[in-house]
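Archive entry: two folds, one per protein. Generate the first.
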Amino acid sequence: MKKLDTQTVSVAKRGSLLVVTIDNPPVNALSHSVRAGLLEAVNALESDADARAMVIICKGRTFIAGADIHEFKRPMQAPLLGEVIERLDAATKPIVAAIHGTALGGGLEVALACSYRIALDQARVGFPEVKLGILPGSGGSVRLPRLIGVAPALTMISEGGQISARDACDKGLIDAVVSEDLEAAAISFTEKLVAEGAKVCRVSALPVPGFDPAVFDTSRAMLSKKYKGFRAPLVAVDLMKMVTETPFAEAIASEYKVCKDLLVSPQSRALRHIFAAEREALNVAGVGADLRPRDVRRVAIVGPGTMGRGIACCFQNAGIPVILIGRSDDSLASAVKAIRKIHEANVKRGGITADEMERRMALLTTATSYEAVADVDLVIEAVTEELNVKKDIFARLDAVLRKDAIIATNTSFLDIEELAASSADPSRVAGMHFFNPAHVMKLLENVRALKTAPDVLATTTALGKRLGKVPVMAGRSEGFIANRMLSKRTREAQFLLEDGATPQQVDRVLTAFGFPIGPFALADLAGMDIMAAARAARVARMSPREQRCNIVDRLVAAGRLGQKSSAGYYAYDESRKPSHAPEVDMLLEAYRSEYGLAARAITDEEILERCLYAMVNEAAKILEEGGAARPGDIDVIWTNGFGFPTYLGGPMFYADAVGLPRVKEALDKYSELVGEPFFKPAPLIERLVAEGRGFYG
């Protein structure tokens, strides 16, 4: 019979057991009603003389998947999670956590405070708090090492990864793994415990097992390199060291203080912003939540080049059959060989098995005739960035595709409206701009045209998630969002060379800021011939100064194509290690001399401000034009596509943190120094500053 019922937690009597069911969709987050309900449930267990034990289970697709992050924005309402955890830990009768889906963060802390844990074999557990710039704050860091040891606990907490139920069972975190009917299995497991006289097992009473003290220095060195700039992973090392040296109750109090301090830190605010922005980006204007995406069961990709190959891998990895269309059998054979090589590298890394690689390769077929795509649900065009070539492909696709098939272009710069207009049915045309390497990069910049059907937009968004990407919707704009902003940073990097900076200085400043690679090292990696071709495609629309600034063309003429030729902005040895190239110094001196340009000393501050604020200013124009729906979408694009440090929240969040008045002041300064066409503050920035607001209010 039902014993008690709160908004999200119910308790039912099953013989001598109480079965507590949490139902707080979509992920059973630990919101106030869940915390209060759990506390009441333990009280019910303790006050019922006939109840011998309790099972905690969740409805829906998952066990408790963590805290309710919406509550982070306001004072927490009692009972706090720590109080609930303490009550679970102090229970005088056994409590069993029955886990399916994921038990993450506070959800895993709840499970650790129970006497026993049972899980479905597909379940996963973890402490992802570090990804939000915080750490477990309700005993997770203190209990976990007592169960599985210091080194594995430190790995889980400092890196935020998840482990499988079977791995957790092997480590001692979970007591039993079952394959079906979790509730029945959990009740049977608990009844057996009661029948055998099982006692309460408190993780808090366990000692920290022996460990090698060198683990802290080793972990600190590894984390400093792997998570450069991030604070929480290194704090996790200090926290774990404290846990090994401190009595349980004191360690719990210290852990809570560390979590609270991190929660109000700038990094945590920035990381939580990106977490929320990625989810908000899934809400596309004009696409209702109840609008069903079209089924995508088979796709085709036109163009077997670098991008086409990477995109094909994405669909193979998602288990979706893909047809690769090329002009010749030889080009397709080369593409298939390259795709296999990508999967073989994954096998060598241990990411997939050899059998899985063959399963994925079996999903790939090739053809030289467009007739082969007659029955696909989606075609992605990924050929050279030439408008007429793409228009011709659209016409060929129109002739053979089903009427309900979607045509997507991977263009990064061309006008989506002109491409859509070249189709017999513009409503089925959209952009799906993958980033190179497509099988690695998380960002998918989807693009809407004026006539794109809402269910097509819903489909490209849903498909992005299915491919494991972070999809963001962009509107019509040359370069859309990502490359339009990048072009302004590239422009300023080039102008800075004109003014007297060196490639090394610019790259050093931007990598010190937090970018994984500087613009000139990136150009060398991409290939100077590729950069020159992109410049040639746009040069007619450039300003006179941009047209004059042909440093890239001069490098190509000198045979300096980047890493591929062992010479670009840098010189490269056999292992592609870069070093200073005096020849580039001479090339820049000759360039300045030809145009009568005097080199001057450039400060690091000027480099950073010109490169960053040029992007922010362009982003403000994109927002005002409707090319981006909200500033958060821009932050998601830059953190996922170009390595803008997530712990700084993206360019728009960063601009607000700096202060828009300060940004505008710098833009005004560089309008005079560099030129008004390049730095005049966008009207949106002028208006926001006048109103005393930022991009986020």
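Generate the second and append.
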Amino acid sequence: MARQDPHQSNLYRQLLEKYWGFKQFRPLQEDIIHSVMEGRDTLALLPTGGGKSITFQIPALAREGICLVITPLIALMRDQVERLTQAGIKAMAIHSGMTRQEIDIGLDNCIFGDYKFLYISPERIETELFRVRVQKMKVNLVTIDEAHCISQWGYDFRPSYLKITRLREYLATPAPFLALTATATPGVVEDIQNKLTFKRHHVLQASFERSNLVYLVREVEDKQKYLLKSLSKNQGYGIIYTRSRKRTREIAEMLVKNHISADYYHAGLDYDTRETKQDSWQKGDKRVMVSTNAFGMGIDKADVRFVIHYDLPDTLEAYYQEAGRAGRDGKRAYAVLLYNKGDRTRAADRVRRNFPNIKDIKTFYEALGNYFQIPLEGGKNMAFDFTASDFASRYRFSLSAIYSSIDFLQKEGYIELTDELSNKSKVHFQVNRDELYNFQLTRAGYDTFIKLLLRSYTGVFTDYVKIDEQSLARKANASKELIVKYLIQLKKLKILDYIPYRKTPMVIYTEERLDRRNLHISREKYTRRKELYVQKLKHMLHYAGSTTRCRSRILLEYFGQTDTRPCGRCDVCLRKKELELHYDEFDRIHQQIREKLRQHNRSTEELVDELPLSESKVIKVVDFLMDSGKIVPSSDGKLLWRDKKKPGR
């Protein structure tokens, strides 16, 4: 790293304090900022809560031009745009939930309107509208959030991410790429840089170690009983993750019934309800949020004391990211995984459900095209409102089959499914002020309503502006229905464009609709993805089922940190401490016992005689290994080492 300019460093700190109120950067943030300011393509790995957004927002503000931010999460785009706007920074989001005219005006504003940030979803990059306009923008930085999505070896591959490197051809002047992710194995780190055609590989990585986070696995049959006992004894705010929408409600109601303040959250709730629930928890009105993995984006609560996983996640990447939402204030916090033999059985069933056969995927694709009434060879780059429950009842698909098929078609690059959009109503005047004035003179019946709109909202001539029909109705002392009627009539007269409120996920056709026979799904890719999924699930099961290895070390080594020490705090380390043995001493005795028993079965007495170690220490470790299930009695009455293959890398 080149020597940092103290004047530039001072500027970065001034911006940090002015817009975010912090006096100091978190670890690695300033190194990343200096790297991209020096024009380097950079891959930055920062853990959840490590402050990734600061690393591109500061350099973008420190120089002339606009920063492109590519992210697959529309809700995240809008959340960040709202925060930047509140801080007085001009930002825009362009995504497939918008009309062509909204996108057209938005892109024009980014060229001529002194905007500093343009958030886009990756599938927009190849559209002609974006391709032509981006060449006219002075882009100072390209940021790729969730960068692991570009790798087929990552846990959330999205083919649309492969288009990002085309930006290098479209930009009028070169701009550095900053790729950001919280989790990536060494192979994925290499793949990200190759796929984004980095001029030179350059990685800045914070340690994956969370020294204040205590990892615990609790093997319990009655998980609800454990929750009740644990939460009654321990205080603080927390999150309980479960895979079932129905179970989020059941657990929350059980906790409330037992006088523990709780609420539930999942993607099936409407946008306003989710916003209300999240705000209530973040403000501290509710202590516990029981949720599916839909809860997490945009959470900025530092004092989360625990994250409990009621069910087994699919990958260690997902587990690490979700567990990392605890203890962001640097104080002691707990990441607890509840586990039993039933979870192993359910994991095997998950493989079957997540990988429907290719014939069923094609049947789903055909039904989806019919549902949207898309002609063959049509629909490319078009977005359609999608209600899974309606589709399921009409075409007799289970919800798991729907989402599994969509996931596979996404990975093949045929469609994209957005998170649920809750688009507030918007208006934009399509005439200029003089034309509007003449209209008001000739059509006096609309004059009062137009004046109400202009008094209530600014910027309606240059951009689409969010409006609230109910608020307008109160001001006018009229019904909401009358306000909507006026807006629709003015739209018909082409005075303004009115986009009514809607909330729904959307399916985007990234390729034209194909005939079933021409829909190519590679059996080789299908098999490879299934094998990758199974491998990652095995790593997760290994973590949950391990009884002799430090939890933190398992996670760190998975992410490529090999020079690690036992954390001394997880459930495994604490059990070893009870033996009154040092970790290294325990490991040495453990290894020697394993080697002896792998040769042939032995009794405890034979182990004591053969090992040049303290008798009491050997017996302690033997007892520990028997309790952990590593050693079992054999048919000859001696001790047998029970081998479990480690998951492959």
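Annotation attached to the second fold: Residues 645-649 have pLDDT under 50 and may be disordered. Residues 425-500 form one domain.
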